[in-house]
Write a structure and sequence with these properties.
The protein is α/β, with parallel strands linked by helices. It has one domain. 37% of the residues lie in helices and 23% in strands. The strands form two sheets. The chain has an eight-stranded mixed sheet with strand order 4-3-5-2-6-9-1-10, with helices on both faces. Helix 1 runs parallel beside helix 3 and helix 4 crosses helix 5.
Length: 216
């Protein structure tokens, strides 16, 4: 059954996702992306699906442009805020899988499991939706165990960015800035291993020593 929204919420849903999409596009075309991979890791766009990737919540905006139009299935809350996000990212070519890592986590994970088994890329913010920041929760490893697959880890570091005073220290890349995409080697489906891989991805991205360069 579809959620029942107030007229104010329907108005917001009609305006905000379109506005957010336009802003992301205007910003995205100015960004310069670089890929840096550790030994044993390869950027996902060179590897066919199905694949599972974990990332930190704070780098979502840079991810939205870099991985647009890839048909990536991402977990999005069934809340009103989640509806705003879903309508925005779907315009960027993502597939919103409804659920979260908290209240309706089981539903979300089952839907991601179906997406993975159907041969798709799947991505989860390992510390979402409420943190603590950069601490991996169980959701991504539970999904990996459900489908018997490893977890890739990525982090996008905007070298010039505004940092919000939010729980995740959300990053908004400044126009014409450089964004390094750090790729860590796939980790086994264990929370400690995924945490270690994400920590390595952060160090790789912040190293500012790209091996290959690709424009978004």
């Amino acid at each position: 059954m579809s959620p029942q929204y107030t007229w104010k919420q329907r108005l917001v849903l009609a305006i905000v996702p379109r506005l957010a999409y336009m802003i992301i596009c205007l910003l995205g075309v100015t960004l310069r992306y670089e890929d840096v991979s550790e030994a044993g890791a390869e950027p996902a766009y060179h590897t066919p699906p199905p694949l599972i990737y974990a990332l930190w919540h704070r780098c979502l905006l840079a991810c939205a442009w870099r991985f647009r139009n890839g048909g990536i299935h991402i977990l999005v809350s069934q809340s009103f805020d989640g509806e705003l996000i879903a309508r925005t990212v779907e315009q960027l070519g993502f597939v919103a899988v409804r659920g979260s890592s908290s209240r309706d986590g089981a539903v979300g994970l089952r839907n991601l499991q179906k997406a993975y088994l159907a041969g798709n890329y799947c991505a989860i913010t390992a510390d979402g939706p409420r943190g603590p920041s950069q601490i991996a929760k169980a959701g991504v490893t539970q999904l990996a165990q459900m489908v018997d697959a490893p977890v890739g880890a990525i982090y996008l570091h905007s070298h010039r960015a505004w940092t919000l005073r939010s729980w995740d220290r959300f990053m908004i890349p400044k126009p014409f800035s450089r964004v390094t995409v750090g790729w860590a080697a796939p980790a086994p489906a264990e929370r400690e291993a995924v945490q270690a891989a994400l920590d390595r991805a952060v160090r790789i991205a912040e190293s500012r020593a790209p091996k290959t360069v690709a424009k978004g």
